Every structure is written in C-alpha cells, then in structure tokens.
Amino acid sequence: MHHIFGITPWQFTALAFAALLVGFSKTAVSGANTVSLAIFAAILPARASVGVLLPILICGDVLAVLTYRRHAHWPTLWRLFPAVAVGVVVGTVFLGLADDGAVRTSIGAILLLMAAVTVWRRRAAQTPEAESEPTRAARVKAGSYGVLGGFTTMVANAGGPVMSMYLLSAGFRKLGFLGTSAWFFLIVNSAKVPFSAGLGLIDGHSLLLDAALAVFVVPGALIGRAAVHRINQRLFERLVIAATVVGGLQLLLR
User: Which of 2, 160, 166, 187 has an alpha carbon within 20 to 30 A of 8's alpha carbon?
Assistant: First the structure.
C-alpha cells in the first residue's frame, strides 16, 4: 500500500477515517466532508488529493441518493445546473494553470469564505425565504451560487458548503436538504470525472488508492443514516459551519 503516493500506514488510517467521514457527511452532516477534504490535502499533494477524493465522494453520493432519493426538489436543481456547468469549466482551466500551493491556498480561502457567508446569512435572515423571493432575485442567486459551486467543486471538491448555503438560505429542512444535495452531487461529481482525468488528476495510481478507501465510505453512510434523525436542526447547521472553518484554516496555515 505504502508505495502509492508514499503513504505510511498511519496516513492510510487518517485517509480511511476521512473516507468514513465522507459517508457520514453524505447521509447526515453535509459540511463534515470539508474535514475529509482537509485531511486528504494534508496527506497527499493538493492537486492529487482532488483526484483521489472524487471517486470516494461519488461512492458517498450513490449511497446518499439510495437513502434520500424521494426527498429531492428538482426545480431547484434545474435552476442551478447551467451556472454550475460554467463554474466547472472555469475551475478546470484554473486547475490546468495552478500549482500545488495555489490550489491548496484557494481551497482554504474558499472554505473560510463559505463559512463566513453562512454565518452572515443566518444573522441577517432568521426566517427562511423559501419561494417568496421575486424570480429575478432568485435567478441571480441561483446563478451566483451555481457558478461558485461549480468552481469550488471542480478545484477543491468543496462545492458542499456552497450548496449548503444555497439550500439553507432557500429554507430547506433536513430531509429535503439531504435529498436535493444527494442528487446534485451525484450528477455534478460524475460529470467532473472526464475533466479530472483529462487534467491527469485521476489515473491508475489514484484509482488503486480509491479502491482501498471506498470500503470505508459504507459504514460512515450507515452511521449517518442512523444519526440523522437524532440531530437537531440548529445543531446540524452549526456543525456544518464549524467543520468548514476547521477545514479551511488547516489548509491556509500549512
């Protein structure tokens, strides 16, 4: 095992824990996988970590869709996809040009920005603004979150916080939030595979490591599924924010 990316058994254990967290985040606390992202970026080269994490996230997405598929809100998804596609293309160009340090710094900055926006939004609007917004404002919001979500998911696999902000601000409760997120990320992450392979981020080496780590996603998803109904909504949102801040700081301070 250790010859792939020169990983020690201790580092493999940390990556396995991160994979378990991916499963948990996909079925319970959405922002928790920003912690996984930080662990992957701490152990592997930043660019390589993006490619290794992607197939693991897709495993988690499949489990989340199987669990929450009935709860998705499709009109919200269709409103987001065109802008997300633009963000993914911009992110691909950035990854093609940026070195490891730039990728890591941008990942950290993106995560902290996301956390700040969430806290600010929650202070500003204690009441959810579900579908009462005028359509123009709703379209602009979907567009800006979509482009940012596409960019952050391509560059850092960190679209989770952006989508969390968008869905929380649109007044989604836990199950609608999880179902809509599940379908969103299954579709978007699958679409990113050819881009990542084209950039050389996914190859035989990275897939070998994925094969070893994917096993750990399943218990994480099962734990999340068991825990989700016990997690209070406010606590749920606070955990998402806290996890994002920890992940972002860890990357910026390296």
Answer: 160
